[in-house]
Structures are given as structure tokens and as C-alpha cells.
Amino acid sequence: MLTEVESKRLIAEAGIPVIETRLAKTKAQAIALSKEIGLPVALKVVSPDIIHKSDSGGVKLGLASAAQVGRAYSEIVRAARQAAPKGKIQGVSVQKMARPGVEVIMGMSKDDQFGPVLMFGLGGVFVEVLKDVAFRIVPLVKRDAAQMIREIKGYPLLEGYRGQEPANIPVLEDLLLKLSDFVDKTPEIKELDLNPIFAYSDGAVAVDARVILEPTDV
Amino acid sequence: MCEVADTGIGNLDRVFNPRSVAVVGDKRALGFMWLRSLSSFRGNVWSVQIDPNELPGIRELGVTNHLSLLDIPEPVDYVIAAVPRNVAPKIVEDCIQKRVGGVCFFTSGFAETQTEEGQRLQRQIVDMARQSGLNVIGPNCVGVYNPKIGLRHSEAQQYGGGGPVGFIAQSGTHATLFSILAPRSGVRISKSVSYGNAAVLDSTDFLEYLGADSETEIIGLYVEGVRDGRRFFRVARDVGRRKPLVIWKGGETEAGARATASHTGALAQSADVWDALADQCGAIKVNDLDGMIDVMRMLLRPKPVKEGRVGLIGMSGGQAVVLTDTFAKAGLDVPLLTEESYGRLAEFFDIIGGSYRNPLDVSSTFLLAADGAASLMKMLEILEQDRHVDSIVLELFPVIRPFEGGENAADPLLDAIAEFDRRSSKPFMVVVTAGHDEVLAVHARGRLQDRGVLTFPRFERAAYALRRLVDYWRYREGINPN
After folding, report:
1. What is the pLDDT of residues B300-327, one digit of tens each?
2. Which residues 275-304 of B are in CB contact (within 8 Å) with A?
3. Out of B262, B265, B276, whose CB is closest to A136?
4. B82 with B168, same domain?
5. Which of A108, A131, A136 sits opposite B280 (nearest CB)?
6. How far is A193 from chain B (nearest CA, A)?
7. What is the pLDDT of residues B220-251, one digit of tens each?
8. Which of A165, B85, B206, B261 could potentially form a cystine with B168 if both were Cys, beta carbons 3.0 to 4.6 Å apart?
9. pLDDT-above-90 percentage for chain A
10. Which domain holds residue B175?
11. Closest C-alpha among B363, B406, B399, B356 to residue B378
12. Residue B397's domain is classified under what CATH number?
């Protein structure tokens, strides 16, 4: 499994916008990076041995000062050592707090028979509890991307429910097509989650990314 | 593909359109099912059997027997092998040497038994076929049916005329049932094939063949799994752009979720992926044999239905309500009619206890009136002309006088309905519900069907088929279904 920083670099190369995320190996580095990127920032633990970062105290959001960044760094590293005593901790990622938007998820997994399959849904509770998601087999054509977005029950939320900022649907369609193209050309990827992606009226950005590679011994 | 007239060993058209067929190992214990089924075959039929006890039976059927495939004094296009499984490799060897078009193994006891011996024998057949390019269908299947040339695998299958529908089935039972039942409902068959274990040729190969076959306009598929899903998807998407594809997927539930580390992996189930495939290929997904036949009956009608607004006529208040619920639940609209239609209905609609918003509820005593049939025709005509209505559904309840009044008493009514069907530009479906007399209902349905009218025994089946057709035509038109 790739770390968040590695995953995001890969996703960015596919032409999908991601929140700039950089690796800090010390507290001082984290503070320096947060100033460079611009406060407020989010800090997340970077370790191949910790899958559920927020469950194990590995995520701190909305850090608005150097002091807060420093304190968060120490707390994350301490929590990570507790959660995975033998785990390898590469450091802490520093990223700009993204402007909130409609949360969506895009992902890829491999079906035993049909190979890579893309998933689209609304993020958070919609995917986790309601499983309101749509699938298409890679490679997608334009019509597939358009349909899978409109097929989910939560689609009205993307259109700007009760005065919320609507999501730009053509941008999301374009992201799905880029993702399809990317996984089609990258058979080394076994599974992939972009969760969440913040969708805005003028664009979208992946806030977190997780890429799992195929075992290399095959 | 089908126009190629060479005698090459890998030419699948020799299998579907053979000029000569050999049956290896047919015997009395099987009731000589193969040789009997092939009594209708237009080309030459040969038998290969080495058991002397079986020879008199074969002679009685008027079929010439040889002790080996290699002794047959002409090229053989299609071989059906019903031999014990350990003889199968020897038969494959002879088929290769004889350069036959292909061989179908009725024989079972291979990989499907999950025994070491069965799997070893199947691998052996696969290796030999791969090296030589021999077409092997099965094992564990009934192979090809081509009614036009009388190539059958069951004596119950009709022959003599072809049709526009191709059918591909993993299961022999489903191939046999479909090929017997579908033509009875007017769904006539070009070619069908059951392919069992798919050791060599898989559904994709047959889909590719029927996709290119000029005699086949619609393709049905019963499938449980495919070997090379990527290739299946590619071929299905390509064929689906040219011909309607109806998929009946067996084994929708998959045991055991795979261990995954992503949301996407945990959520993607086999059934979802088949649904996605159907969407992406414009294929119509059905759940059973009835659904398959119903959808095909509708596809064969020359009336595309692009919107899902139905005009309904029910024979009683209760039935009209349930009829409406059923179509609405299937995702179809039951709209209000135009003011013009209501004006025209008001001129003659005086049925006590009836109403005419949509559905038109005409009450069960309606056809008793002297002008009942004429009024019904007026209503159908109003729905035909109403621009809010895309298709028309009529319920008939046969436990009423015209149907009970003897053999031909209902003929004027049925003739008028059939006449409307021919004239109407909109899809028209008649649901003949059973009431308490299924025999009368079957009779009425048959007589309407004989007159070319699309009939259904239950509201659900009509609604289900119509909904699938609406989705399909939207796909064809490139209209977004939402």
C-alpha cells in the first residue's frame, strides 16, 4: 500500500487535482512547511502500517498557528507509536485545509471476472452507511460517466440542495474518465480510493487518496 | 464470418451450419436421443459406435454406422460425442485428424465434478484443442440448434423455419427450454447453443459469432460466469451497439466478501458489476425465462417505445388500482390524459361505478352491454390519439359473457382488438388475467396471440417487459434515463 503522499503524487500525475501534501519528518519541518503552504493546515500520520488514520488519532485538522502545528505533530507521532508499536512511521503529512465542498468518493477495485471497475458515490455517511454508489467497468465512455453520477440516489445533493453550492457535474465526469484512463494504463494498481473529493461549482479536488498496489511477486 | 465457406478446422460456421453431422456413442440407454433428434437434419447424419449390441438399433433408424470417425467417407462438419469421459481425448484426436469443423461433448464428468480425474481429462481436451485450433463445445452440454436446417438436440424442438433470435446458454436445460417455449410465443430462433463447461469455446466466442451472423437480429444469453471478462465486455459492448442483447444472469450471489483495504473493494459485488455491464452495453437484464421471452416478444414488434407513459384500461375498480400500482412500481408513468380526451370520453362514458381518468376503469359488466365492444374500441382509439400516452395496456377478464358463451362467441371482440393492434402506432399489450378460470384465460390468450396481439398472463410481466423496452430504446436514442 502506498502512503498518502505517494498516492497523491501518483494521482496528480494522472491529471487529477489533489490537495498539495508534503511530508515532514520532524516537528520543525512540519512548522516550516505549514508556513510555506499557508495556514490553516491539516496534519496526518504517514505510515504504511496504519490504514485507519483518524481512528488511531493520526489526523489533526484546522491547525491555524505554528504552535498548534507543533503540538499536533507530537500528538500524532505519540498516538501512532501507541497504535502500531512496531509500525514504521515515515513522518507526518502537511496539507492545506481544503475549502469545504460536496464530498464525493471515486474508487477502483478489481472484479474477478471483469478486472478494474470504477465506483462513484457521495462521501461520508452516504457511502459508508447507505452504500449509495454506482459502478462501471473500465474503460468508461462519456455516457458511462454521465450516467453513473446521475444514477445515485443522492444526486440532487450534487445539484445544490437547499442553497448549497452545487457540484460541477462536467468536472466530475471528466475526473471519472481520467481515472478510468489512468487505471486502464496502470495494471499495477489493485485498489484505489479518492475519499473524499471536494466538489465545487468551479472544480473539484481530491483531499485524501489511497492506492494499493498488486503484490509484486506475481 | 457466416459467409465463409471454407472447410477450415477453426471455422465456427461449419458447426452452426453443418452439411454433415456425426454422432459418436449414441445408444439405446439414451433412447437414441441424438440420432432421433437429427432425423429432421437436412444434411447427412452418420453414427459412430463400436458396441455391437447398439448396431441393430442404429440400423433401425436408417443411419449408417462406422467404427471410427475416420471411416466416414466424406468431410464431417459437426460431431456430437456422447462417449464415456475417458474416451473423450481419443475422440478429440480423431476429430483433429478428420479436420472436422467442431465437436460438442454431451459427455459430462469433467471439471464440473471437481474431481482430479475430471479436471485432468478436461485439461487434456483443452490442450489438444488449443494446439490444433479445433472447436470444442462443452463438455457437459447439448450444443447447437439450427431449426432452419433441422439440426436439433431434442425431438420437442420445432424445425423447418428459422427466425431472427439467437440464444446462448451455459445451461443445456435453459437452451432446451428456451428453444422449445420461445417459438410457441412467436419468438423464432435462428441458432441456439448450450456450451456447458466452456472448456475451450466460451460465451464470448458465440456472442461474437451471432453478433456477426446475418440471420440473427436479437441475441439472448443465459450466463453464470465468463472466463475472460475483459474480452466478454469488449465483445458485448460492440455487439450491443448493433443488436439488442438480453442477458439472464444466473448465480447473482457471491459467497464471501473478499478481504479488501478500500471502500470500493468492499462495496463492489458481482451483481453490481453485471448491472454495470448491462448498462454499458445497452443490454437488457432479465431474471428468468419468462422475462427473456417477454422482452424478446416486445423487441420483435416494430414499434419502439421511447417514453414510459402508459394508458391503462382495467375491467374493475380493484383491478384498475392494482394495474396502475404495478406499472408505477415498475418505474413507468400513468399520466392524466389530455383535456381533449376527457371531452371525448365524457360523450359516451356512462358506466355505472366506472371512471376515466387513467386508468379507464370500465367495470366488469361493461362487455355485457350491446355496444360494449364498440365502446371499448372508442376508448382504445382515444388513448391511441392522446399525446400524453406512449403505450396502451388493456386488461381482459375472461370470466365474462363473451368468453363464456361458447367457442367463438368472443371472436368479434378479439377481432376488433386485433384490428386495433394492427392500426395502432403505439405498443399495445393485453393482459388476460385468470380470474377463477385459468382454462378460459389460456384459451383467450392463445386466440389473441394467434391474431398477432401481444398478451401477458399477469400485470407484472407486462410492466416488467415494457419498462425494459423503454430503457433499451432510451439507450438506443442516447437519451439519459434520468
Report:
1. 987 888 789 999 999 888 888 999 999 9
2. 275-277, 279-280
3. B276
4. no
5. A136
6. 6
7. 999 988 889 999 999 999 999 999 999 999 87
8. B206
9. 78
10. 143-254+261-299
11. B356
12. 3.40.50.261
